[in-house]
Every structure is written in C-alpha cells, then in structure tokens.
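**User:** You know discrete backbone vocabularies at least as well as I do. Would you mind producing a protein record, from residues through to fold? Write it directly below this note and I will take it from there.

**Assistant:**
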Amino acid sequence: MSGFLSSSIARKFAMALSALFLIFFLIIHLAVNITSVFSENLFNELSHFMGTNPLVQFALQPVLIFGVVFHFVMGFVLELKNKSARNVKYYNFKGSANSTWMSRNMIYSGLVVLAFFVLHFIDFWIPEINTKYIKGDMSGLLADGEGYRYFEELQHKFVSPLRVGAYVVSFVLLALHLLHGFQSAFQSIGFNNKYNSFVKAAGKWYSILIPAGFIFIALFHHFNH
C-alpha cells in the first residue's frame, strides 16, 4: 500500500476515491436526516435501523471512519507535496493567475470540515457508542419505552445558537470545498471527456444543495424545538 501511494498519480487517485466515497455518504446522510423535518417517526425508525443494523455498525461504519481519516491525511500529504514542488519550480507561481481561490485554500476549508466532523462525532456518534457498547444500555439514545429518542437527541443538539452557528459555517466551507473537490475527484480518476461539462454542472448543484440541506435541517430544529 505504501509503495502504491509513493506515486503522485496514485496518491491523487486514492484521494479521489476517498472523496467520491464521502460524496456518496453525504447523500445518504442527508436523505436520512431530512426526514426529521417532516416525520419524527420515520426519522426515528431510519436512525434506529442505521444504529442497530450489524452490517452498518460493524462493516460500513468502520469503512466510513477509515475513509474520513484517509481523505484528510492524504489531503495534507498532497498539500505538502504540492508546496514542495512549487518551491523548486523555475517559474514564479502566481496562485491567483493559475488557480481558483477554492483550489488554493482546500487545506484550510478541509481543516474546518475536519473540525466539524470531530464536533459531529462528539455530538452524536460517541454518545451513542458509549450508550450501546460501553454502558450496555439499550435505552438512552435508542429507546425509552415509548419510542426511539433519536429525534429528541437531534433537537436537543440544535438548541444552542453557538452550535448551530458552527454547523452553518462548517457547511458553508464544505460547499466551497466541494465546489473544487467534486470535479477534481472525477478528473483524478480519468473522467475528463465529453461528459466533463455535465460533471461540472452536477458538481456545482451538489456542492450547493447538499450543504444547504444540512444547514436547513440545523436551522429548522433550532427554531422549532
């Protein structure tokens, strides 16, 4: 694996695959979370299924965590390699002339998105894992005798305006990150042909609508708790 990733092309390809995996995950995550806006019961049922299904818990969840860690680590590695390459080039690198603001600042938007992932894990994933597998208590976040409490927990997290503000800022920066990263991922795997204009358009819509959906969910529960 380390030998494979020693190549610049291989690193970019691996980075692109992890990005596409996370892009797909965001769609699934939004599809589940958006149900909380119009159906408490449906959201609880879907969350309960995702939270107790062995395939999700013990196969897909570890893959997701690995994908997140791998993507950000590989992003930092590529950024360091790119900076080293620019420092030894014989021409002046004019960032504003040769690249967009988003591509030049992927590392910074990525850091904020990483911080958001940490916050999100602290808010939801760690308490649930602690409840189910450390305390061994299948009530708590899962059920209280009258139904699943995922919806209640979701609303509780969005009471604080500071937390909601952090979520909104994070998703705005995620949108900026995706505006460059979406198309870049497809290009890195060789998807750069007659469908390139479609990929660009799809990337723009995805980069705007997916983060906007998460922002809407946070604001909706903040003002309707």
About this structure: Residues 54-88 form the longest helix (35 residues). The chain has a mean pLDDT of 82. Residues 16 and 185 are 4 Å apart (CA to CA). The two ends are 48 Å apart (CA to CA).
